[in-house]
Amino acid sequence: TMAWSESVDTLLANKEGLAAFRAFLKSEFSEENVEFWLACEDFKKTKSSAKIAAKAQKIYSDFIRDDAPKEINIDYHTKTDISQNISEPTLSCFDDAQRLIHSLMAKDSFPRFLRSEAYKELVKKQQDGNQKRWLPFL
After folding, report:
1. How far apart are CA 113 and CA 115, in angstroms?
2. Is residue 1 situated within a structural domain?
3. Which CATH number belongs to the domain containing residue 102 in this structure?
4. pLDDT tens column, 27-86
5. How far apart are CA 95 and CA 112, in angstroms?
6. Which of 31, 74, 88, 99 lies at a 20 to 30 A Cα distance from 81?
7. In this structure, is residue 133 part of a structural domain?
8. Hey, what's the torsion of the CAs at 84, 88, 92, 93, to 10 degrees?
9. Matching Pfam families, A to Z (predicted)?
């Protein structure tokens, strides 16, 4: 739990850390950021060109297009670029938007998560657990 505080990447790479961060973002009504980031990570691993087009459309309709149900907050230029290229998507078509969202999470959501009661509780729980393990006579 303490290691999660090293960086947003450390947190995102850890299953429990990711779950805790998602729950925190959900409480702040901004879980679309981590969901978009995860969708992009999955998208970049896609091998079949038919699946690339289908996944790209899904990401676009879920997160990018105007009035998308989980619309992410990206600048007009990035949004326009994606909209113009979505008909022939590449594995890197969401890279700029993903970088922006990663940066937003790293600079904004992540520090708030580390200051949150939810994170402090998880750290305390782990520390209590560690004490019991190392001091069985207590």
Report:
1. 5
2. no
3. 1.10.167.10
4. 999 999 999 999 999 999 999 988 999 999 999 999 999 999 999 999 999 999 999 999
5. 25
6. 31
7. no
8. 20
9. RGS (PF00615)
DSSP secondary-structure letter at 70?
Answer: T
pLDDT number for residue 131: 60
Q: Please, which residues have CB within 8 angstroms of residue 68's CB and are 6 or more apart in sequence?
A: 60, 61, 62
> 122 is in which domain, residue-wise?
8-127
CA distance 78 to 63: 13
Q: pLDDT confidence of 127, banded at 50, 70, 90?
A: confident
Provide the number of structural domains found in the chain: 1
Which tokens in the block code for residue 44? 């970049």
**Average pLDDT of every residue of the chain:** 91
Token pair of 65 as six digits? 């297009």
Is pTM beyond 0.90? Reply is: no
Q: Which amino acid is at 132?
A: K
